Automatic annotation (TrEMBL):
UniProt-listed SMART domains: Lactamase_B
Entry superkingdom: Bacteria
Keyword Transmembrane: no
Any one GO molecular-function label of the UniProt entry: hydrolase activity
UniProt name for this protein: MBL fold metallo-hydrolase
Pfam families referenced in this protein's UniProt entry, alphabetically: Lactamase_B
Amino acid sequence: MKKMPMTSVASGMGIEVLPDLYHYTVQIVNIAFIGNPSVSNEFILVDAGMPDSHEMIIKAAQERFGDDCVCKAIILTHGHFDHVGALEGLLKKWDVPVYAHSMEKPYLSGESNYPPPNTEEAGLVAKMSTTFPRHSIDISANLHILPKDGSIPVLPDWRYVHTPGHTPGHISLFRKNDKALIAGDAFINVEQEKLYDVLTQKQEIHGPPQYFTRDWQASWNSVKTLTELQPSVAVVGHGLPLADDELITNLERLSRDFGETEIPENKK
């Protein structure tokens, strides 16, 4: 995938959400590092950023975990271009397993392309979405399908939650002991359809990006599922992390009002 020029004021910014959970922004999307640098130089990467951003991600890993850092695995919340864009370059540096849900496999093994975007909603990013890559990548040599029981082989303290809607095999990651959540695009903290909001990272909790979401009832159910977990902190695919009362209050509102505020008119 070719590098895309779109970026935000938060690009290159890292936030230590917890001692072993690090949020990092790559242009207009977030990745997460799981691992405590005061304990080990090893980490797990969640999602793989924008196209051709591998050098930026590797540098962020080295700054966080040291020049001799060791990536143990990559976990994908889903296979959209802004979450797998740097995979090719990263796998040349770190030849590691890449874990994803079985229903996301066709988009990660060269079998199927994602459907065309919905461009009928307001917002410049929604209109631009026809130019976004939606073709399948093929990482079959590194791809590992996650177990059906919700466990994550490389992260025994975490489990994945199947949160379909945005894509068929979308997942979120949850750690029960401290209620930490990595939501992916199941819900986000910016109105992703509006270019100004994306560039300035204006905080506002929303459902998944409208232009690429296929199943809105499933998306709503996924938000309800994550709300029931009552997370204490959340790293999201787009926008800044959320925590505590701000997170719960806004997530409960989103879960309640989703049908009215999030589903595009032409999909109701």
